[in-house]
Amino acid sequence: MSAPLPAVPANVCYHCLQPLPEDGGYTVVLAEQEVPVCCYGCQAVAETIAQQNLLHFYRYRDTSNPLQVPLLPEELQQLTAYDDEQLQQQFTRHDEHGLRSINLSVEGMTCSACAWLIEQHLGRVAGVRKVQVNATTERVYIQWQPEQAKLSELLHAMAELGYRALPFQAANQEQEFKRRRRYFVKRLGVAGIGMMQVMMIAVGLYFGVVSDLTPDLQQFMWWVSFLMTTPVLFYSAQPFFASAIRSLQAGRPNMDVPVTFALISTYGASAYATIMNRGEVYFESVTMFTFFLLVGRYFELLARQKAVAAASNSIKLLPAVAQRVLPSGELESVSVSQLQLGDIVQVLPGTTVPADGALLSDTAHVNESILTGESRLIQKRQQETVLAGSVNQQQPIRLRVTATQQETVLASIIELQDLALSRKPKLALMAETMADKFVSRILMLSGLTFLIWTFIEPNEAFWVALSVLVATCPCALSLAAPTAVTGAIHKLNKSGILLRNADMLQVLPDIKTIFVDKTGTLTTGEFKLQQLHCYAHEHIDEQAVRAVVQAIESYSEHPLAAALTQLTKKSVNVTEVQTVIGYGLQAVWTPPGTADAEPIRVGSLRFVREWHPQFQPQLTAAQVFVATPETVLAELHVGDRIRPDTPATIAALQAQGIEVIMLTGDRQDLAEQVAQELAIQQVYGDLLPADKLAKVTAAQEQGPVAMIGDGLNDGPVLAQADVSITFGHAADLARTAADVILLRNEFSALTHCRDITLTAQQILKQNIRWALIYNVGIIPVAMAGFVTPYIAAIGMSLSSLIVLLNSLRLYR
């Protein structure tokens, strides 16, 4: 029992110490005392203080001057510090729409009911656009409009529900898990000691010694069991009680509701028998039930820790200190959080790059395994981007900072991991829904069992109903999906495969048709100019053509463009550059020897033929053409090569019964050459984005399809496909539309991704199948009275552990 709170003068609000209204105001229960408060606001704040275990605020505050008494504990006042703009840069992200997003770590979240309650409550806060909760990793992703809501308001909203939420910091994650482990280990210790003592007494009562016991000695042993069981119930079983209360407040009873009812009713009936000295006691069932449940929760905590370790470790590998280069050329050590855009930093060999930056040194060799899972060295040239988290392998290098903290590529990858963990596939949602419905049906089934047994054998009715309640608790069903999904995402991330949509885990294994783009997907996308044919023109020579193509292509994100941006040292000015998706680029320039500006096009054959319908190329393999409204200036052949791992991957997919179809905007004859080399039977060339979209949409009438592409013009078709896949080097629009990002930029990662999803789907189905078989199969056995309460507790805990151990296979 907690210590009483200090008294305050009569007729004043206990919270703010101001006079109460004439009607007496409101009341609130603090430390088991009912105290008056003047208004609903004081009542809400007082309840929050009690829920946050901050009652020391009332015990130690100075009440000598009521006008200066603080209205919030220091712990809650400190939340306003998170509204500081500079501080928020360390853990929030901005998007192009002006929205901010954050990942919060939440204490005390135990199940889907907690997640539902948080989503509903935060979703009603003004300015909040999106709330996604992952009960497995105990994180909340929030996207909000900073002009309408402050971060401290969101944290206060969480506090009102009784949850302590703070910005996710990887450095604190390990400490939080250690604290949670200690929390469970202490309760496990008390439950284990209590269970052993009570079981020794139970053995003496049940196995042959009963005849030698006097009634006084029997009652004494009952009292000893009662005293040993009490701390187990009120201390060790506390996590189940708290979870059950929250779920009932949310209106969605979870699996801890029947657990709580079973524990309290068994303890209450046994205590009554002890005090009245008649009936039977089952204190050993209470202690065993609590102990085995705690064992299951402890293993679940360890599984969660393993699930989130990869993302946490990625952030922790970033250095805390960077070497910044001063204008004088000297170096100073500064915190990474203090780096600003444009700062120049020096990275020594063997150390980790602290922020994204443009390389100022001539070359660098870095290891990007933290980002892609691939340990081979990557060569970077001057002005290329070196990513935070990469490890410099050779000589010291210098970078100009282009992104820091939450704006780095590494931070965006980790944010996508968290989003994938918070999005449940349909099969997982189905299991969660079944578990929620199962709880209410268990309660009704247990009540029905009690009524039936009152007619069969009244003395056993309560204990049989209790066994039904315990044995059929859907713990395994609740764990079936989250553990499998979390394990699969962990396995994929470790392999350099990033998920944006967890539904892919369910859909990809069933797909029998995969559409692939050619350029940059089946091929490397590393182009080089092979041939340049210029047509005779009075004022425009080859150097002028090279200069204008180079100037226009510098505006393009197409894979071909990279090979056309270093054609000459000569420069020209172009204006009004427009990208015509699927065709090329159009601009305005002033040709040499003339004073008038005119339009010019650089792009596909179809693009040029809009001006010159009768034009026939001279180069068989030309892909890029240059023309003005008066004449065609040049045609270019830009060479590419098939990825080394593409033929084997295509063959492996076809061997599994998957049809691979090529869709490309390149000319049909060029596409057919690549398709023939890869043994792809169906190939469609000369396609615009709308044509690709039509092909995929038509195929979807026969079943789900996947699309793999990396170009700007692949965005619409990627969004349409049931599963969309792209590469880490892809255009921003393609990455935004894709469900899966292959960070290693290897085509073979596709089969690896499919193999993992197949395993994950099998394990997910196995988990759900086992949970349903156990829960449904144990019902008639328990209702028939063949299962005692403690055997029911063991069976329920073992079923949960089987699900956890099966899911852990994904981590191997």
Major beta sheet, strand line-up: 17-29-28-27-18-25-26
Distance between the termini: 47 Å
* Helical content class: 40-55%
Q: Any idea what the radius of gyration is?
A: 34 Å
Largest sheet: 7 strands, mixed
Mean pLDDT: 79
Provide the domain count. 5
Features:
single chain, 812 residues, alpha+beta, Alpha-Beta Plaits, 5 domains, seven-stranded mixed sheet, six-stranded antiparallel sheet, 27 helices, 47% helix, phosphoprotein, cell membrane, Cu2+-exporting ATPase, transmembrane, HMA_dom_sf
Describe it for me?
The protein has 812 residues and is of the alpha+beta class. It has five domains: 1-72, no CATH class; 78-168, Alpha-Beta Plaits (2-Layer Sandwich); 175-312 and 422-486 and 762-811, no CATH class; 497-524 and 642-743, HAD superfamily/HAD-like (Rossmann fold, 3-Layer(aba) Sandwich); 528-639, Calcium-transporting ATPase, cytoplasmic domain N, CATH 3.40.1110. Helices cover 47% and strands 17% of the residues. Strands 17-29-28-27-18-25-26 form a seven-stranded mixed beta sheet, sandwiched between helices. A six-stranded antiparallel beta sheet has the order 9-8-10-16-11-14, with no helix packed on it. A six-stranded antiparallel beta sheet has the order 19-24-23-22-21-20. α15 (458-471) packs parallel to α27 (789-807) and α26 packs antiparallel against α27 (789-807). The model is unreliable at 310-314 (pLDDT under 50).
